[in-house]
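Students often ask why we bother encoding 3D structure as a string. The short answer is that it lets us treat folding as translation between two languages. Here is a chain of 392 residues written in the first language.
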Amino acid sequence: MRLAEDEFAAVVEQVRDRIWRNGSPADPAAVAAAARAEGVVLGAADLVRLLDGVRAATAGAGRLQPLLEAEGTTDVLVNGGGGVWVDDGSGLRPAALVLSGEAEVRALAVRLAAGAGRRLDEASPFVDARLPDGTRMHAVLPPLAPDGTHLSLRVPAVRRFGLPDLLAAGAVPAAWEPVLRAVVERRLSFLVSGGTGSGKTTLLQALLGLAAPGERLVLVEDSGELRPDHPHVVRLEARHGNVEGRGGVGLDALVRQALRMRPDRLVVGECRGVEVRDLLAALNTGHAGAGTVHANTASDVPTRLHALAATAGLAPSAVDAQLLAGVDVVLHVARSRAGRGVVEIAVVAPEGGAARVVPALVRSPDGRLGTGPGLDRLRRRLGTPVPSGVPR
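And here it is in the second language, the structure alphabet:
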């Protein structure tokens, strides 16, 4: 008789715990012996299920593993109580799977954190880490999360999306392709702005793949997500401190190290703190560069950078001066019901001594393309002749 899902989950936990106590590998013989020792008699089909379940529970993400491995999955989220949500590229939706409750969610989160070399308990009730397979993990425990342990897993992209892929998917309008290529070929410094999950990293990765093969790209990231299709990539990753807060190496320190590594392009995967100061300084000393930043709209980017740079002691006027001198273009991406894609190409321009991001090319929610007051400035930045994709 085939076991029901809740019965099967209980058997997996029993067998897993016995294997751990015995120090045995999760091979077929050990799993079968542990099942017999627990008084469980299984048929051939359930024994195969049990083997897969125990392996997932000891090395993978337990019952979440099939969701993480499903094609197109970008995020798997577990809320307090065991509710599971999945994003497979079309937005979040509830999964058919529901974990058994707080005990299972917490045990899974603690085990995953330990596998990443991190601690998760009452003394350290939240963790942000990268698992051995590249999955990005975040967890937070009660009482910080009153409804129970919350677990967030972001799956690293297996496929490297290039600009042709984004064009085919409609994420980039065909008329804007020459503009994006010209931004890279002219070695303009640019920022990609947008909300969480809007496709910032995907667009940045695709554009970095257009860089000339002879260029050296130095990537600085908190958690390695960028995988540009380029022959010369150097990757630096931040290191979190231990439970005493020691031993951490932040993005700001890595940006300074990257400048000593002869970068042709310096890339910060996500600007979200004091590293903004060092990136802007680098872009004002002859280095071409790029990065992403969270912002609701392209015009919000200066305000967002002001807030981030304030943590490093920079005044808004200093940020504006460096932004005007060091950043040429802002590419804004957004998520809609039709998917994720570029909705604005803008330029950085002065206004009364302050920096302002001015739209040059815009795409409305219904897909219509238009122009903005920054178009002439964009043309001057791109040089002549103007790419045929720029509306006249």
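Translate back mentally: The longest helix spans residues 5-22. Keep this in mind for the problem set.
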